[in-house]
Design goal:
The chain is built from 28 helices and 11 strands. By secondary structure, the chain is mainly alpha-helical. Strand 9, helix 27 and strand 10 form a beta-alpha-beta unit. This is Chloride channel protein.
Length: 747
C-alpha cells in the first residue's frame, strides 16, 4: 500500500493550537459555544455506555460548582488578608505598638486596662512616633516629628507599590474594572489575569491603600477575584480550553470581588449583572450567587474588622425620615450627578494628558509627587488624615449622648433630640468643608496612576462629606425654626427629627452613582453595607436623580470612558446606534480598495496560500468556490491555517509547496506524479454569519452585540462582496461621533 493516500484529517485529531487566539484579539463567541456544545454532547452520549463515563459526566457537571467554591474561598481569604494588612500599615504611619509591632492601634489597646471611655484609643501600649523618639506627645516639636514620620511612611509605601508594579506586573495598576469589562466582552489580554498580576496586585494594593492616597481597595478587589478565577480555571479542562466558558466564571468572580470588598453578596451579583458582564445567562447568575455566598462566609470567618460583622459601615440609627426630606435627598442626587460628570471629564482629560505628554514617562516620580502632596496637605486635617473607610464610617455615624467625636460637638442637652451646634461642631464643619475640596481635587489626579486604585471609597467619601454638611445644616434649621410651616407638622421642639448620618449615606450613594452610573446594584450595595433597610427609598431617589443629571452631561460612566481612552474594542451594549448607514458603507474592501483576499476551495497550492497569508495581516479568510463565481463556502482563521500547514509539512508525508490545498469533502483526483493534496476541511467554519449589503447598520451592530461575533461576511445576490469586523464597526461608530477612528487599537 502507498502512503500517499493517508490524509491527516484535523477533525479526528485536533492539533494543539488550533482554535486558540492571539494576544489582543477578540474571541468568536459562536465558535466557542459550538465547541462546548459538541464536547457536552459527546460526554452525554458516552455516559450511557459505561459507569466510568457516567462518573466522568457527573464530575464534569459538578466541576463548575466546585470551581465557584474554590474561587469564593480563595478570594475571601485574600480579601481578609488585604483588610488586616492595610489596617495595620495605615496605623503604622502614626505610631507603633510596644507589646508587638504587628498589632494595629485598635488591637493594641484592646487588652489594655488603662483606656477610658472618652479616650478609647489612648493607651500606654500604643506610642506615637514622637513619643517613641522624643519622649513627649505634646508641643510643636512632637507635632512636627509625627508629621514628618507620616510623610516618610506614606512615601515609602507609595514608592514600594509603584516600583513593584513597574518591575513585575505593569498590568496590576489602576482599578482593573475597565479591562475586566473588555475581557468579559470577549477580548483577550494575556497576562492581565495571571499569577504575577495577582501576587503583585495583592501586595501593592495594601501598600497603596496604606499610603494615604485618595483611593479605595474595592475596584482592585474585583480584579484580584478575577485573577483567582482565571488561575483556578486552569485546573479544569472544560474551562481551560474554552474562552466563552471561562468568561462565565469571570463574571461570577466579579460578583465575588464586590461581595468581599463590601460584605455585600447580593449587591455583588447585581453589580456583575449591571455593570461588568457582557453575556450573563441564568446559570451564571446562580453560580455567582453561590460564589458570592462562599466568599462572604470566608471573609466573615476571618473577621478582619474584629466586630464579627461582615459590613464595613454598620449604622445603628433607625430614625424614620419624613416625606419633606426627599427634597434635600434629591439635591444631594443633583450634587452627585454634577460631581460625577465633572470628575469623569477632569479625570479623562488628566489621563489623556498623561498618555500624550512627557508626564507618562515618569510614573514613579508622578506617584511620589502626588503622595507627598496628599500627605503634606492631609495631615493637619484630621478628616483627611484618616483612611477613606474610617472617614466614611465616622460620617455615617449618628451622635449618641456619650460620643466624643468632634462631629458631635453640640451644646450639652440632657435628652437625645436635635441640639444646637457648639464650638466643636463648627470646627468640624470647617475641616469637613476643606476636606471636601481637597478630596474632589486630589481624586482626579490619583485615579489612573500606576498603582492599584479603586474609585468607590473616594467618591463615597466626597458624597458623605457633602451629605453630612447638608444634614447638619438641615438639623440646625429645624432646631432654630421648628415653627416654620415646613417643620410644623413633624418636628416639634425636643424631638429628634433629622439624622445627619442618613444624609451622608444618601450623598455617598449619589456620588458613587454619578461616577459609575450604577442604579440597582448601588442601592442594594448601600443598604447591605450599612444595614439601613428603612432608607431604600431615599437611596433610590438620590441614585436615580444622580444618574439622570450625570447622563445629561455625557452618556458614559467612568469605566466606559477609560475603555474608550485606552482604545479597547468594546461594543457598549447600552449605547444606541442612531446613524442610518447600510453595511455596504462600513464593510471592507471599500470601493477604491483592492479586492477581498479570499481562498478558493480547490486549485490553490500550499505556496500560494502561504504567500497570500504572508502578504496580508487579516485574522481570517473567506473560502469561495472559485475566483470567478465568488460563491461562499466558509471561513478559515489565519492562525488555524498556519498551524495546520506547518504541521502537515512536518508530519504528513509528501506535502510540499506544490501540493494542492483542498477544502472540499472529497479530494479531487490528482495525477500520479503530483504531490498529495493537503485537506483542510476540518478547520473550515462552514457556518459563517452573513448579511446582505443592504442590511441596515443598526441591525448588524445588534447581531454583533447579541451573538458576540468577531466578523461577519457581506453578500450581494448570494455572491461574496466583503467583510465586516468588530473593529470596522467601532471605527465607524467613532467616525460618526467625530472621534479619531484610529484610536481603536486592536483587532
Amino acid at each position: 500500500t502507498t502512503n500517499s493516500n493517508k490524509f491527516v484529517d484535523p477533525l479526528e485529531d485536533p492539533l494543539p493550537g488550533v482554535g486558540t487566539y492571539e494576544d489582543f484579539n477578540t474571541i468568536d463567541w459562536v465558535r466557542e459555544k459550538t465547541k462546548d456544545r459538541d464536547r457536552h454532547r459527546e460526554i452525554t452520549n458516552k455516559s450511557k455506555l459505561s459507569t466510568v463515563a457516567l462518573l466522568h459526566s457527573i464530575s464534569d457537571a459538578f466541576s463548575g460548582w466546585l470551581l465557584m467554591l474554590l474561587v469564593g474561598l480563595m478570594s475571601g481569604a485574600l480579601a481578609g488578608g488585604i483588610d488586616i494588612a492595610a489596617h495595620w500599615l495605615t496605623d503604622m504611619k502614626e505610631g507603633v505598638c510596644l507589646i508587638g509591632f504587628w498589632f494595629n492601634h485598635e488591637h493594641c489597646c484592646w487588652t489594655s486596662n488603662e483606656t477610658t471611655f472618652k479616650e478609647r484609643d489612648q493607651c500606654p501600649q500604643w506610642q506615637s512616633w514622637a513619643e517613641l523618639i522624643t519622649g513627649t506627645s505634646e508641643g510643636p516639636f512632637a507635632y512636627i516629628m509625627n508629621y514628618l514620620m507620616y510623610i516618610f511612611w506614606a512615601l515609602l509605601f507609595a514608592f514600594l507599590a509603584v516600583t513593584l508594579v513597574r518591575a513585575f506586573a505593569p498590568y496590576a495598576c489602576g482599578s482593573g474594572i475597565p479591562e475586566i469589562k473588555t475581557i468579559l466582552s470577549g477580548f483577550i489580554i494575556r497576562g492581565y489575569l495571571g499569577k504575577w498580576t495577582l501576587i503583585i496586585k495583592t501586595i501593592t494594593l495594601v501598600l497603596a491603600v496604606s499610603s494615604g492616597l485618595s483611593l479605595g481597595k474595592e475596584g482592585p478587589l474585583v480584579h484580584v477575584a478575577c485573577c483567582c478565577a482565571n488561575i483556578l480555571c486552569h485546573l479544569f479542562t472544560k474551562y481551560r480550553k474554552n474562552e466563552a466558558k471561562r468568561r462565565e466564571v469571570l463574571s461570577a468572580a466579579a460578583a465575588v470581588g464586590v461581595s468581599v470588598a463590601f460584605g455585600a453578596p447580593i449587591g455583588g451579583v447585581l453589580f456583575s449583572l449591571e455593570e461588568v458582564s457582557y453575556y450573563f445567562p441564568l446559570k451564571t447568575l446562580w453560580r455567582s450567587f453561590f460564589a458570592a455566598l462562599v466568599a462572604a462566609f470566608t471573609l466573615r470567618s476571618i473577621n478582619p474588622f474584629g466586630n464579627s460583622r461582615l459590613v464595613l459601615f454598620y449604622v445603628e440609627f433607625h430614625a424614620p425620615w419624613h416625606m419633606l426630606e426627599l427634597a434635600p435627598f434629591i439635591l444631594l442626587g443633583i450634587f452627585g450627578g454634577l460631581w460625577g460628570a465633572l470628575f469623569i471629564r477632569a479625570n479623562i482629560a488628566w489621563c489623556r494628558r498623561r498618555k500624550t505628554t512627557r508626564l507618562g514617562h515618569y510614573p514613579v516620580m508622578e506617584v511620589l509627587v502626588v503622595t507627598a502632596l496628599t500627605a503634606v496637605v492631609a495631615y493637619p486635617n484630621s478628616y483627611t488624615r484618616m483612611s477613606g473607610a474610617e472617614l466614611i464610617s465616622e460620617l455615617f455615624n449618628d451622635c449618641s449622648l456619650l460620643d466624643s467625636s468632634q462631629l458631635c460637638g453640640y451644646k450639652p442637652v440632657s435628652v437625645l433630640a436635635d441640639r444646637p451646634a457648639g464650638e466643636g461642631l463648627y470646627t468640624a464643619l470647617w475641616q469637613l468643608a476643606l476636606a471636601l475640596v481637597f478630596k474632589i481635587m486630589v481624586t482626579v489626579i490619583t485615579f489612573g496612576m500606576k498603582v492599584p486604585s479603586g474609585l468607590f471609597i473616594p467618591s463615597m467619601a466626597v458624597g458623605a462629606i457633602a451629605g453630612r454638611l447638608l444634614g447638619v445644616g438641615m438639623e440646625q434649621l429645624a432646631y432654630y425654626h421648628h415653627d416654620w410651616f415646613l417643620f410644623k407638622g413633624w418636628c416639634s421642639p425636643g424631638a429628634d427629627c433629622i439624622t445627619p448620618g442618613l444624609y451622608a449615606m444618601v450623598g455617598a450613594a449619589a456620588c458613587l452613582g454619578g461616577v459609575t452610573r450604577m442604579t440597582v446594584s448601588l442601592v442594594v450595595i448601600m443598604f447591605e453595607l450599612t444595614g439601613g433597610l428603612e432608607y431604600i427609598v431615599p437611596l433610590m431617589a438620590a441614585t436615580m436623580t444622580s444618574k439622570w443629571v450625570a447622563d445629561a452631561f455625557g452618556r458614559e460612566g467612568i469605566y466606559e470612558a477609560h475603555i474608550r481612552l485606552n482604545g479597547y474594542p468594546f461594543l457598549e451594549p447600552k449605547e444606541e446606534f442612531e446613524h442610518s448607514s447600510l453595511t455596504v458603507d462600513v464593510m471592507r474592501p471599500r470601493r477604491s480598495d483592492p479586492a477581498l483576499a479570499v481562498l478558493t476551495q480547490e486549485g490553490m497550492t500550499v505556496e500560494e496560500v502561504e504567500a497570500l497569508v504572508e502578504s496580508t495581516r487579516y485574522s481570517g479568510f473567506p473560502v469561495v468556490v472559485s475566483q470567478e463565481s465568488q460563491r461562499l463556502v466558509g471561513f478559515v482563521f489565519r492562525r488555524d491555517l498556519l498551524i495546520s500547514i506547518d504541521n502537515a509539512r512536518k508530519r504528513q508525508e509528501g506535502v510540499v509547496g506544490a501540493s494542492q490545498v483542498v477544502f472540499t469533502e472529497h479530494a479531487p483526483a490528482h495525477a500520479a506524479d503530483a504531490p498529495p493534496p493537503l485537506r483542510l476541511r476540518g478547520i473550515l467554519d462552514l457556518s459563517p454569519f452573513t448579511v446582505t449589503d443592504h442590511t441596515p447598520m443598526d441591525i448588524t451592530v445588534d447581531i454583533f452585540r447579541k451573538l458576540g461575533l468577531r466578523q461577519c461576511l457581506v453578500t450581494h445576490n448570494g455572491r461574496l462582496l466583503g467583510i465586516i469586523t468588530k473593529k470596522d464597526i467601532l471605527k465607524h461608530m467613532a467616525q460618526i461621533a467625530n472621534r479619531d477612528p484610529d484610536s481603536i487599537l486592536f483587532n
